[in-house]
Design brief:
This protein is of the alpha/beta class. It has 3 domains: 59 residues, Beta Barrel (OB fold (Dihydrolipoamide Acetyltransferase, E2P)), CATH 2.40.50.140; 150 residues, Rossmann fold; 64 residues, Probable gtpase engc, domain 3 (Ribonucleotide Reductase Protein R1, domain 1). It contains 8 helices and 13 strands. A 6-stranded mixed sheet has the order 10-9-8-11-13-12, with helices on both faces. A hairpin with a 2-residue loop joins strand 6 and strand 7. Helix 2 packs across helix 8. The longest helix is centred in the C-terminal third of the chain and has 22 residues. It is globular. It starts with a strand and ends with a helix. Bound molecules: guanosine-5'-triphosphate and zinc ion. The site of guanosine-5'-triphosphate has 20 residues, from helix 5.
Length: 293
Amino acid sequence: MVGRVVRIIGGFYFVEPQTPGPIVECAIRGRLKLKTQGILVGDLVKYTIDEDGRGVINEVEPRQSVLTRPYIANVNRVVLVFAHCNPDPIPLLIDKFLVLSEASGIPNLIVFNKTDLVATGKADKLANKYRSYGYNVLCTSVRSNLGKRRLLQEVKGKVSVFAGPSGVGKSALLNMIAPGLRLKTGAVSEKIGRGKHTTREVQLLKIGPDSYVADTPGFSQIALDFMKPEALAGYYPEFSAYPNCRFTSCLHETEPDCRIKGAVSAGLIAAERYQSYLELLAEVKGYWEKRYR
Ligand SMILES: Nc1nc2c(ncn2[C@@H]2O[C@H](COP(=O)(O)OP(=O)(O)OP(=O)(O)O)[C@@H](O)[C@H]2O)c(=O)[nH]1
Ligand SMILES: [Zn+2]
């Protein structure tokens, strides 16, 4: 039988069968333990149920992708959720989430939630700004069910991870598209108190045939401590239209004949994005130098 690992607790693997049925608690076949570097949530596995009714995983199918924060295999949609207000969108934090998501190579979607709390013009302006950078953007409201159909379409048949700052409505959006989930939602302050000392383990939730979602705890700190400084510009999609600076190692800071800086001066790249690039570059460089000093 084939199924998907949706949760791992204490050496047991909870497998959701591909055909509708209850989740099976599985162990791993001994020789498989040696062959794999561990099974991840999201892995597709072949398993059998032995005479005692216990599940045993015999084989792991090749992975299509591995997302590292959170650790989930085969994710093929990252939904980055922010709010139009409460909490207010912070451009630098949004760009950090975007960079993290671009670095994973997994297609993303930006969702601006709580559209009901702002004027239409203001909501459109924010959404259009990120569209102009090349992102897919959707405005939603859990209050008025705005964007429900589109969001459902976006996650249909996919393994999606919902990520974003705390309190933007990730859990509320998941409840909107899959009311059966009954995820806890709450005021920001309540949640921070509750989440402080408990690490929620990663879990995939089935919301339809072959459709899975993971709700991640909101975080406000992201460390871009894993990339080379020269990789960063590649995670700003609109920068790719301006290749071939004079130096191939150009970091687009102070180097002469830099095409990115040229595009900023000509108004072809948004100054706000270039500023965020410089700030994140300083951070990435800091981590990099600490590591290789
Ligand atoms: N007005 C309005 N409030 C919303 C909307 N969506 C969510 N909320 C409220 O925002 C608060 C936070 O929602 P959650 O779904 O718990 O937020 P979260 O992103 O899952 O938060 P963390 O679990 O801390 O990461 C709750 O009080 C929700 O009722 C919306 O579209 N409009
Ligand atoms: Zn350059």
